[in-house]
Structure of Methyltransferase type 11 domain-containing protein:
Amino acid sequence: MAGCGNALMSEDMVKDGYIDIMNIDISSVVIKIMRKRCAHIQQLKYIQMDIREMSFFEDQTIDSVIDKGTLDSLMCGGDASLSVSLMLEEVNRLLKPGGIYMLITYGDPSLRISHLNQPGCCWHIKLYIIRMLRHCPKPPCLYTPYQFLFPFLLNS
Ligand SMILES: C[S@@+](CC[C@H](N)C(=O)[O-])C[C@H]1O[C@@H](n2cnc3c(N)ncnc32)[C@H](O)[C@@H]1O
Protein backbone atom coordinates (compact mmCIF):
# COMPACT_ATOMS: atom_id res chain seq x y z
CA MET A 1 0.00 0.00 0.00
CA ALA A 2 1.77 3.10 -1.26
CA GLY A 3 1.08 6.05 1.04
CA CYS A 4 -1.22 4.10 3.35
CA GLY A 5 -2.19 6.97 5.64
CA ASN A 6 -4.59 5.80 8.33
CA ALA A 7 -7.06 4.29 5.86
CA LEU A 8 -8.91 1.07 6.71
CA MET A 9 -8.25 -0.43 3.29
CA SER A 10 -5.37 -2.74 4.30
CA GLU A 11 -7.29 -4.01 7.32
CA ASP A 12 -10.30 -4.66 5.09
CA MET A 13 -8.09 -6.52 2.61
CA VAL A 14 -6.89 -8.82 5.39
CA LYS A 15 -10.56 -9.56 6.18
CA ASP A 16 -10.88 -10.45 2.48
CA GLY A 17 -8.02 -12.96 2.76
CA TYR A 18 -4.86 -11.07 1.76
CA ILE A 19 -1.93 -12.41 3.76
CA ASP A 20 1.05 -10.12 3.22
CA ILE A 21 0.56 -6.37 2.85
CA MET A 22 3.44 -3.96 3.16
CA ASN A 23 2.21 -0.47 4.02
CA ILE A 24 4.48 2.48 3.49
CA ASP A 25 4.05 6.16 4.20
CA ILE A 26 6.42 9.10 4.42
CA SER A 27 4.83 10.21 7.68
CA SER A 28 6.49 8.76 10.78
CA VAL A 29 3.45 9.89 12.78
CA VAL A 30 1.00 7.87 10.73
CA ILE A 31 3.29 4.82 10.67
CA LYS A 32 3.56 4.91 14.47
CA ILE A 33 -0.21 5.17 14.83
CA MET A 34 -0.86 2.37 12.36
CA ARG A 35 1.73 0.04 13.91
CA LYS A 36 -0.05 0.45 17.23
CA ARG A 37 -3.54 0.13 15.75
CA CYS A 38 -2.68 -2.97 13.73
CA ALA A 39 -0.19 -4.63 16.09
CA HIS A 40 -2.51 -7.64 16.37
CA ILE A 41 -2.74 -8.13 12.57
CA GLN A 42 0.27 -10.18 11.52
CA GLN A 43 -0.52 -9.85 7.81
CA LEU A 44 0.19 -6.10 7.93
CA LYS A 45 3.60 -4.45 8.08
CA TYR A 46 4.21 -0.71 8.31
CA ILE A 47 7.40 1.06 7.24
CA GLN A 48 8.17 4.73 6.99
CA MET A 49 9.48 5.31 3.49
CA ASP A 50 9.45 7.84 0.68
CA ILE A 51 7.74 6.26 -2.28
CA ARG A 52 10.16 8.11 -4.56
CA GLU A 53 13.09 6.17 -3.12
CA MET A 54 12.33 2.57 -2.21
CA SER A 55 15.78 0.99 -2.55
CA PHE A 56 14.88 -1.02 0.56
CA PHE A 57 13.01 -3.33 -1.85
CA GLU A 58 14.68 -5.43 -4.53
CA ASP A 59 13.66 -5.20 -8.19
CA GLN A 60 10.60 -7.24 -9.26
CA THR A 61 9.62 -8.43 -5.80
CA ILE A 62 6.12 -6.97 -5.39
CA ASP A 63 2.93 -8.49 -6.83
CA SER A 64 0.84 -5.37 -6.72
CA VAL A 65 1.03 -1.74 -5.65
CA ILE A 66 -2.12 0.05 -4.54
CA ASP A 67 -2.11 3.83 -4.50
CA LYS A 68 -5.22 5.55 -3.18
CA GLY A 69 -4.63 9.26 -3.26
CA THR A 70 -0.84 9.21 -2.99
CA LEU A 71 0.07 10.13 -6.55
CA ASP A 72 -2.65 12.77 -6.21
CA SER A 73 -0.92 14.19 -3.17
CA LEU A 74 2.46 14.26 -4.96
CA MET A 75 0.76 16.12 -7.79
CA CYS A 76 -0.15 18.83 -5.28
CA GLY A 77 3.39 19.26 -3.96
CA GLY A 78 6.49 21.03 -5.18
CA ASP A 79 8.35 19.57 -8.15
CA ALA A 80 5.23 17.52 -8.90
CA SER A 81 6.34 16.17 -12.27
CA LEU A 82 9.69 15.04 -10.93
CA SER A 83 8.14 13.48 -7.82
CA VAL A 84 5.55 11.57 -9.83
CA SER A 85 8.17 10.45 -12.33
CA LEU A 86 10.44 9.12 -9.54
CA MET A 87 7.51 7.40 -7.87
CA LEU A 88 6.34 5.65 -11.04
CA GLU A 89 9.91 4.63 -11.88
CA GLU A 90 10.18 2.98 -8.47
CA VAL A 91 6.77 1.29 -8.72
CA ASN A 92 7.70 -0.01 -12.17
CA ARG A 93 11.01 -1.33 -10.84
CA LEU A 94 9.45 -3.16 -7.89
CA LEU A 95 6.62 -4.91 -9.70
CA LYS A 96 7.07 -8.52 -10.72
CA PRO A 97 6.46 -9.28 -14.41
CA GLY A 98 2.67 -9.11 -14.83
CA GLY A 99 2.34 -7.16 -11.60
CA ILE A 100 -0.37 -4.56 -11.14
CA TYR A 101 -0.22 -0.92 -10.14
CA MET A 102 -3.70 0.14 -9.04
CA LEU A 103 -3.98 3.92 -9.08
CA ILE A 104 -7.10 5.25 -7.38
CA THR A 105 -7.26 8.92 -8.20
CA TYR A 106 -9.55 11.92 -8.25
CA GLY A 107 -7.56 13.25 -11.20
CA ASP A 108 -8.93 13.53 -14.70
CA PRO A 109 -7.49 10.66 -16.80
CA SER A 110 -6.04 13.14 -19.28
CA LEU A 111 -3.95 14.58 -16.44
CA ARG A 112 -2.67 11.19 -15.34
CA ILE A 113 -2.04 9.22 -18.55
CA SER A 114 0.86 11.38 -19.69
CA HIS A 115 2.64 10.64 -16.40
CA LEU A 116 1.91 6.92 -16.60
CA ASN A 117 3.25 6.79 -20.14
CA GLN A 118 6.64 8.18 -19.18
CA PRO A 119 9.69 6.63 -20.88
CA GLY A 120 10.70 3.34 -19.30
CA CYS A 121 7.20 2.45 -18.11
CA CYS A 122 5.24 0.20 -20.47
CA TRP A 123 1.96 -0.16 -18.63
CA HIS A 124 -1.08 -1.84 -20.13
CA ILE A 125 -3.56 0.71 -18.84
CA LYS A 126 -7.20 0.01 -18.01
CA LEU A 127 -9.35 2.87 -16.79
CA TYR A 128 -12.34 2.23 -14.55
CA ILE A 129 -14.61 5.17 -13.86
CA ILE A 130 -16.47 4.93 -10.58
CA ARG A 131 -19.58 7.00 -10.94
CA MET A 132 -21.21 8.53 -7.94
CA LEU A 133 -24.50 6.92 -7.00
CA ARG A 134 -26.21 10.28 -6.79
CA HIS A 135 -25.87 10.49 -10.58
CA CYS A 136 -28.20 7.52 -10.91
CA PRO A 137 -31.34 8.58 -12.75
CA LYS A 138 -34.39 8.22 -10.55
CA PRO A 139 -37.01 7.10 -10.22
CA PRO A 140 -36.58 4.25 -10.98
CA CYS A 141 -32.82 3.61 -10.76
CA LEU A 142 -31.80 1.68 -13.89
CA TYR A 143 -28.47 0.37 -12.63
CA THR A 144 -27.21 -1.97 -9.94
CA PRO A 145 -24.22 -0.61 -7.99
CA TYR A 146 -21.91 -2.97 -9.89
CA GLN A 147 -22.80 -1.35 -13.20
CA PHE A 148 -21.16 1.86 -12.06
CA LEU A 149 -17.72 0.39 -12.71
CA PHE A 150 -16.99 0.49 -16.45
CA PRO A 151 -13.60 -0.62 -17.79
CA PHE A 152 -12.12 1.35 -20.67
CA LEU A 153 -9.04 -0.14 -22.31
CA LEU A 154 -6.80 2.84 -23.01
CA ASN A 155 -3.96 0.99 -24.68
CA SER A 156 -2.92 -2.59 -25.27
C1 LIG B 1 -4.36 11.57 0.30
S1 LIG B 1 -3.49 10.64 1.53
C2 LIG B 1 -4.15 9.02 1.18
C3 LIG B 1 -3.95 8.09 2.34
C4 LIG B 1 -4.59 6.70 2.15
N1 LIG B 1 -4.05 6.02 0.99
C5 LIG B 1 -6.08 6.82 2.05
O1 LIG B 1 -6.66 6.31 1.09
O2 LIG B 1 -6.71 7.39 2.95
C6 LIG B 1 -1.86 10.58 0.84
C7 LIG B 1 -0.87 9.83 1.70
O3 LIG B 1 0.36 9.76 0.99
C8 LIG B 1 1.41 9.97 1.91
N2 LIG B 1 2.56 10.46 1.13
C9 LIG B 1 2.71 11.68 0.58
N3 LIG B 1 3.89 11.76 -0.05
C10 LIG B 1 4.51 10.56 0.12
C11 LIG B 1 5.77 10.05 -0.27
N4 LIG B 1 6.62 10.77 -0.97
N5 LIG B 1 6.07 8.78 0.08
C12 LIG B 1 5.20 8.03 0.81
N6 LIG B 1 3.99 8.47 1.22
C13 LIG B 1 3.66 9.73 0.88
C14 LIG B 1 0.86 10.98 2.90
O4 LIG B 1 1.58 10.96 4.13
C15 LIG B 1 -0.58 10.48 3.05
O5 LIG B 1 -0.72 9.54 4.08
Q: What stands out?
A: Residues 3-5, 7, 24-27, 30, 50-52, 68-70, 73-74 surround S-adenosylmethionine (CB under 6 Å).
